[in-house]
Design brief:
five-stranded mixed beta sheet, binds zinc ion, globular, single chain
């Protein structure tokens, strides 16, 4: 992953529940958990924050946290691309590359 870009392919679960996973090695890309930041998508700007949820998917003896931010209107296979705004602190730009549009385009 490039330092100035966060990129993730949306899973079915993320699309259905409206969130985007942020894996541990990408945590440093965003402000710390709970601190608000702005995400701009086209003309609209939203304030969000990273959230953490404790998880036992590796067994009850290996509790750990998963990190995510909430985002709706995603489809499985979409690619979420987030870039830092070079001029404004705590401002990020989000783009969604639609898997479906791409397929249509490639016909
Ligand atoms: Zn887990």
């Amino acid at each position: 992953m490039k330092e100035n870009t966060f990129q993730r392919a949306v899973s079915e679960d993320e699309a259905r529940q409206g969130y985007v996973f942020v894996l541990k090695d990408a945590l440093g890309f965003f402000p710390v958990v709970g601190r608000q930041f702005e995400i701009q998508q086209g003309e609209s700007v939203r304030k969000i924050a990273l959230e953490a949820r404790s998880c036992q998917c590796r067994g009850p003896d290996k509790p750990h946290a998963h990190y995510f931010f909430r985002w709706n209107s995603l489809h499985r296979g979409d690619t979420v691309v987030v870039k830092r705004d070079p001029k404004k602190a705590h401002r990020y730009h989000l783009q969604i590359r639609s898997a479906r549009a791409q397929r249509e385009f490639c016909g």
